[in-house]
Structure formats: C-alpha cells, structure tokens
Amino acid sequence: MDQKELAFFRDALNQNLDEILQKGQETIEDMTESGETYADPADRATAESDRAFTLRLRDRERKLIKKIQKAIKRIDDGDFGFCVACGDDISIARLKARPVTTLCIACKSRQEEEEQNRGE
Ligand SMILES: [Zn+2]
Predict the structure, then answer these.
(1) With contact defined as beta carbons under 8 Å apart, do 51 and 31 qualify?
(2) How much is the pLDDT for 97?
(3) How high is the pLDDT of residue 45?
(4) Ligand 1 centroid to 58 CA: how many Å?
C-alpha cells in the first residue's frame, strides 16, 4: 500500500471516529434531557429500557472507537493492511468496506467457520 492509500484510510478512520464521538455526545445530551420524572410507571419503564439500550449502544461505540484507534495506530506502525493471522495483504476493497478489519478474507472466513463449528 502506498502513502496515498494510507493517507486515504487515515482520513477515513479519523472521520469515522469524529462521527462516533459526535453521535456519542448527542446520546449523552438526550439522556440528560430524559432525566425527568414520570407519573406513569409504564412511561418510566420505557424510559429505563431506552436508557439501557443507550448504554448498550455506548458500549458498542466504545469498542468501535478502540478498533478505529488501533487501526490508526497500525497505519502509524506500518502494519495497516496486513492480516494479523497470516501476514498477507488485505484487499483494498475489503479495507474500504471495513477499514478496522485485521484479517484477510480467507482468515476471516476460516474464523467464522470455526465459530460456527463451536456452535456460536
Ligand atoms: Zn490472513
């Protein structure tokens, strides 16, 4: 992968990160706004399950943020675009679809197959 391609992925990852952080900020604001009290217990239950959903979402966002930061670090280290399992190049098309990926398509399918065999 040449410098231009690396710069492209670095920009894409940074942009992705900004979007998630932005969305996360909005989520926090929503949660603060919905901190009102509900007279009807059913409304309260809905608000609480909304909150649980939001927190789960936040957890997923946090994991994604970590993945993106790791991908940016791999660009810095010169490891970006190489499969962590076999060391082969990961195709540009695959990276464009999913820049945080660390496995080439062959290793990824093998991993998925193994997960299925374990009944996951
Ligand atoms: Zn591989």
Answers:
(1) yes
(2) 94
(3) 84
(4) 30
Q: Report which residue type is found at 21.
A: L
With a cut of 50, which residues of the chain have pLDDT below it? none
User: What does the alpha-carbon distance between residue 75 and residue 113 come to, in Å, rounded to a whole number?
Assistant: 29
Q: Domain holding 18: CATH number? A: 1.20.120.910
**Does the annotation place 83 within a ligand binding site?**
yes
b/e for 6-45, b at 16 or more Cβ within 10 A?
Answer: bebbbeebeebbeebeeeeeeeeeeeeeeeeeeeeeeeee
In terms of residue numbers, what domain contains 103? 81-120
What is the structure's pLDDT at 14? 97
5 Cα: distance to centroid of ligand 1 (angstroms): 20
- Is pTM beyond 0.70? Reply is yes
